[in-house]
Specification:
Blueprint: H1 2-5, H2 8-21, H3 34-37, H4 42-52, H5 68-78, E1 111-119, H6 128-139, H7 145-153, E2 157-166, E3 171-180, H8 184-200, H9 205-218, H10 225-228, H11 240-250, H12 252-264, H13 273-278, H14 280-291
Antiparallel strand pairs: 1-3, 2-3
Length: about 300
């Protein structure tokens, strides 16, 4: 808990959740409170398990080659929970906010961290796919609007991203950023302007398709593809969309090999990430010519 408290980029999300939902499970920190954890005993854990780990709340998933009949018997034996009449039910999340809200927390730091967000809907809502694309346009990667404007053009944030958080009975869309103190107001203004732009202007077909491809590959992650593969940033000087296009032709593994081969032949300069982003069309044309394949 102390470690998380000393991690402002993470802590700010707990502050945001508390502001959104208050004193209910959706607004609580996952880590909990130290004073409560110190009071927990073995009996508390046993009661918790007995109330929640019951047959009616359990799904057993088996994959691979197996004998269905034997697996069924084994599952019935291993997961022989006693029947429970009063199965624990998750409390329904209450949406109580009536007007815009703001929460400020002071901590001595070299950066100002912020989370801005709006309420959305539960995870089963059919609009979730459209929301995923919307968050991708805003801040779903290194070629997103917020990243390009605030990091590339303004040089005003250490990180900037957008993403949706959808649960069983509630959800929200949020934008997170870590900025230099002096540039904080400029970052907030730029975020609001980009949100207004998204409301007022139709997203172009090319940008929309690019975001859909990246979002589909990531499975909803807002992290750059290089970070998904745990590749050091200095060794990943290509934009997400290039990797998507390359992987469509050769597959993910071969795409990584070809990118590394490009490093060695100086088609892409190692560590020259920012220049590659700005000159994306030119670089992609060079790579397309070399591979004998024209990307759409």
């Amino acid at each position: 808990i102390n470690m998380y408290e000393d991690h402002p980029a993470r802590k700010v999300h707990d502050v945001f959740a508390k502001l959104m939902y208050g004193d209910q499970p959706a607004g609580w920190s996952v880590a909990g409170k130290k004073e409560i954890i110190k009071k927990l005993t073995r009996e508390v854990f046993i009661r918790y398990r007995a109330a929640r780990y019951v047959a009616s709340g359990t799904i057993v998933v088996v994959a691979g080659g197996f004998d269905p009949g034997r697996i069924k018997k084994d599952a019935e034996r291993i997961f022989d929970f006693p029947p429970k009449k009063n199965l624990f039910r998750k409390p329904i999340t209450k949406e109580l906010q009536k007007k815009p809200a703001l929460k400020l927390v002071y901590k001595k730091s070299d950066q100002t961290h912020l989370v801005m967000g709006v309420r959305a809907f539960p995870v089963a809502d059919p609009r979730r796919h459209a929301l995923s694309v919307l968050s991708g346009v805003l801040g779903g990667g290194m070629s997103s609007r917020l990243f390009y404007r605030i990091r590339e053009k303004m040089g005003a944030a250490y990180y900037i991203n957008a993403g949706e958080e959808l649960s069983l009975d509630h959800g929200f869309l949020s934008i997170a950023a870590g900025a230099n103190h002096e540039k904080f107001e400029a970052v907030v203004s730029a975020i609001l302007e980009e949100c207004n732009r998204l409301e007022q202007e139709i997203v172009g077909a090319k940008e929309l398709q690019k975001v859909k491809e990246i979002d589909s590959f990531r499975g909803g992650s807002v992290e750059p593809i290089g970070e998904i593969f745990e590749i050091p940033r200095s060794s990943w000087p290509v934009p997400d969309e290039y990797f998507i296009l390359l992987s469509q032709k050769f597959g993910y593994t071969e795409a990584l090999k070809k990118i590394n081969a490009d490093f060695d032949k100086d088609i892409i300069l190692r560590g020259n990430y920012e220049d590659l982003i700005r000159e994306y069309d030119e670089k992609l044309a060079q790579i397309s010519k070399k591979l004998g394949y024209k990307f759409a």
